[in-house]
Amino acid sequence: MISYEGELAILGIITDVTERKEGERELRRLLEEEQQHRRLAEAVALVGLSLTAQLDVRELLDLISKASTEVFGVSSAFVWMLEGEELVGFAGHGKGREQFLGRRLALSDPESLGPRIVREASPIYVNRARSSPIVNQTLLQLFDAQSILGVPLIRAGRVDGALMLLEAQNP
Questions:
Q1: Which of 72, 75, 48 is nearest to 140 (CA)?
Q2: Distance from C-alpha of 92 to C-alpha of 80, rounded to nearest angstrom
Q3: Strand, helix or coil at 86?
Q4: pLDDT digits over 107-155, tens only?
Q5: pLDDT average, residue stretch 39-64
Q6: Which of 14, 79, 105, 131 could cross-link 91 (Cys pair, CB 3.0–4.6 Å)?
Q7: What percent of the chain stands above pLDDT 90?
Q8: Per DSSP, which regions of the chain are E strands?
Q9: How many other C-beta atoms are found inside a 10 Å radius of the C-beta of residue 80?
Q10: Which residues on neighbouring strands pair with residue 165, listed in sequence order?
């Protein structure tokens, strides 16, 4: 309390912290970005080490599936492999893995996303998958997915399968 023009008054000091707060936000953003890059680098290094080890293809694709869930922050990742005119659930990580492994889908299946990705040799992203006509709703319930990203696995110019990234949370 101070005396001002003969009356008691309160003296206050105001400090503008806008720049400091903006700097803190930028620092947090950069830290999150660095952590994401570190996770990606660790996952790539792990896959690289696995490639040089004596792993069979199934173990390698299981490892890639696991790394995909960590790098992309999704609930599950599964690999369909092409066998003749069918896709076979070959490897995976996350909810529904046991039901996925060994599952077969006809390449001509018009209701399933995996065969479509292989036929078209093109990635497809489906947001709000539960209301999408291009997603097999039976499989969707099995894996409890809300959104799906499917990417063709191409080797020597030929599609060998598809990597499916599934997220259980609403986007």
A1: 75
A2: 9
A3: strand
A4: 999 889 999 999 999 999 988 888 888 888 888 778 888 888 999 998 8
A5: 66
A6: 79
A7: 29
A8: 2-4, 7-9, 76-83, 86-93, 104-106, 124-126, 147-155, 158-167
A9: 31
A10: 77, 149
